[in-house]
Design a protein that fits this description.
CATH superfamily of one domain: PAS domain
CATH topology of one domain: Beta-Lactamase
CATH architecture of one domain: 2-Layer Sandwich
Shape: rod-shaped
Strand content: 15-25%
Number of helices: 9
Order of helices and strands: HHHEEHEEEHEEHHEEEHH
Number of strands: 10
Radius of gyration: 53 Å
């Protein structure tokens, strides 16, 4: 007997095509969203780190450039003071040469009188020594005369007259008379710098000496002028420049909250920007440690810079990490310091990173929307194919059902049942 009926699964398949179609589209959309999100997250993280690193390096380079520029300003100002000092000393040297020039002329005249018999050589020498001892010019400046052994044969200071002073040292331990002899005998004339005590005083002062060798009588004659007035003027100019630096530092803009200051080798603040109280560097343990770290990190020579990061409360009681650029100005023994909060250096990169992250989020949302629209365009043809297959299968089921319900099929079915029944009732036959 034939049994034909509609497939029950076809009913459920036919009943839920919409759910299947929507489920496939949803899964494809989710897949696209996950891929876009993963790509956006990786790209954003990489971009954010790259941007932060680049901006931090750029900001740090700007700070270093400004630090170098300030160091050059200090160098120029110091060179102006040095140029003043050197120009003033050069004028003094020329004045000494001018003052000493007539001495040789006067000695030549006395020696000529002795040669012509107007006087004896001993009398000429005695007259010359007395003259050299009593000459005064300028600010009570004088001449001194030594023989080759550096015995004072004409000196206005009685405590030196007649003494051999070859081993005499100045206030700095310099063997002045040895240098004077070397210059006079080896060069004929020249200058010597030393520190000496003025007549009737007990405090040494810087002095420039001009000496020459009067060969006819083998005398070493010299004079000198004190230059402490030049040094005092130079120090006044340096102090004025130093005060001006405080204003200059106040105008220097590293970035928000950044500033420039100068320490000496002992860690004392020499110059600070106007309006900046740096007393905490000396009054707090963290400030003292910060200063000692700066001194330890300072380069030994001019030019190079080093960087130090330290967590310290420079302003107020709040501690924060400061990025510190350090260099050295050796002529004055200064340590140049620029300090900028680490957060300030990171701020430009952080701001740009957030902008990059926001842009990536916008791109992600646009991608998701585009992905959903694209998935719908891709799913529709597939859904159409599925729907066509389901419709064809339904038609087959309907055709089979029509055949099974027809009179002809029913008669065939009844005849088959009848034959099957008759076959059961026939007795078996013996062969």
């Amino acid at each position: 007997m034939f049994t034909m009926s509609a497939d029950p699964a076809s009913a459920s398949t036919t009943a839920a095509p919409g759910r299947r179609r929507s489920g496939l589209g949803y899964r494809i959309a989710i897949l696209i969203a996950v891929l876009l999100a993963a790509s956006a997250i990786v790209t954003t993280l990489f971009s954010v780190r790259a941007v932060q690193s680049a901006m931090y390096a750029q900001t740090s380079e700007s700070v270093d450039n400004i630090h170098t520029a300030v160091g050059e300003i200090i160098s120029v100002e110091y060179e102006s003071v040095t140029a003043f000092r050197e120009a003033s000393l050069e004028r003094r040297r020329k004045e000494l040469e001018s003052v000493a020039a007539p001495i040789s002329t006067a000695l030549d005249a006395l020696r000529s009188e002795a040669a012509t018999g107007q006087t004896t050589e001993a009398e000429a020498k005695a007259t010359a020594l007395e003259m050299l001892k009593t000459i005064r010019y300028g600010n009570k400046d004088y001449f001194f005369t030594y023989d080759r052994s550096m015995t004072a044969i004409a000196h206005p200071d009685a405590k030196f007259q007649g003494r051999n002073l070859i081993d005499l040292q100045d206030a700095d331990g310099k063997y002045v008379l040895r240098e004077i002899r070397d210059v006079a005998l080896n060069q004929g004339s020249g200058f010597v710098e030393y520190r000496w005590v003025r007549l009737n005083e007990d405090k040494p002062s810087p002095k420039i000496g001009y000496v020459f060798h009067y060969e006819p009588w083998d005398w070493i004659i010299g004079t000198g002028v004190y230059v402490d007035d030049i040094e005092a003027e130079a120090q006044q100019r340096l102090a004025a420049e130093q005060a001006q630096l405080a204003t200059t530092f106040d105008d220097v803009q590293f970035s928000q909250d950044g500033f420039f200051f100068i320490l000496d080798q002992s860690g004392t603040v020499v110059v600070a920007p106007q309006g900046h109280d740096l007393s905490r560097l000396a009054s707090t343990p963290s400030g003292q440690q910060y200063v000692q770290s700066i001194i330890a990190a300072a380069p030994a020579t001019d030019g190079p810079t080093t960087t130090l990061n330290a967590d310290v409360a420079v302003k107020g009681d709040q501690s924060e990490v400061w990025s510190t650029t350090i260099s050295t100005f050796t002529p004055l023994g200064w340590i140049l310091v620029s300090a900028v909060p680490e957060a300030v250096l990171e701020a430009p990169g952080r701001t740009l990173a957030w902008q990059q992250a926001g842009l990536s989020l916008v791109v992600l949302l646009i991608g998701l929307v585009s992905g959903l629209l694209l998935s719908r365009r891709l799913i529709r043809p597939l859904e159409a194919v599925k729907l066509s297959v389901q419709i064809d299968r339904t038609k087959v089921d309907e055709a089979v059902s029509d055949i099974a319900d027809s009179d002809y099929f029913q008669r065939i079915k009844e005849r088959a049942e009848e034959l099957r029944w008759n076959r059961r009732e026939e007795p078996p036959t013996d062969e």
